Amino acid sequence: MIGIRIAEIRKQKGLTQEALAGKMEVSPKYLSSIERGKENPTLNMLINLADSLEVDLEQIFTFIQIEDPKRRKALLDSLLKKADDEQLKLAVKMLKVVIEK
After folding, report:
1. What secondary structure letter does DSSP report for 61?
2. Which of 23, 46, 72, 84 could form a disulfide with 52 if both were Cys (CB 3.0 to 4.6 A apart)?
3. d(Cα 53, Cα 12) in Å, to the nearest integer?
4. Rounded mean pLDDT of 83-101?
5. Which tens digits make up the pLDDT trace of 6-20?
6. Could you tell me the CATH number of the domain that includes residue 49?
7. Residue in 48, 56, 55 with CA at minimum distance from that of residue 31
C-alpha cells in the first residue's frame, strides 16, 4: 500500500519515476521496486521520499479511498499477483465473507 501511495503522490505532483529518483539520488529501478511493493524502504528512505515529494511523511501513510472502480480492481489485481498461496487462501475466505454476506 505504501508503494501505491508513493506512486499516487508522485503522479499528482507531475513527476516521472526518473525525475523523482533523480531528486532522491536513487536509481529509477529501485524507486520502481518500492512503488511495486518489491522493496521495503527504510525509515530514512521514506523521509527522503517525503522530502523529495515535498509532503509530510504522514501523507505517505494516508491511504486515500479509491473511488474509481477500475482503479479498485487494478489494486486488487496488483495485490493478488504478489500474494503467495497461503495469502490467496486467506484473501478468498475474506472476500467470500464480504461478498456473500
Report:
1. T
2. 23
3. 10
4. 87
5. 999 999 999 999 999
6. 1.10.260.40
7. 48
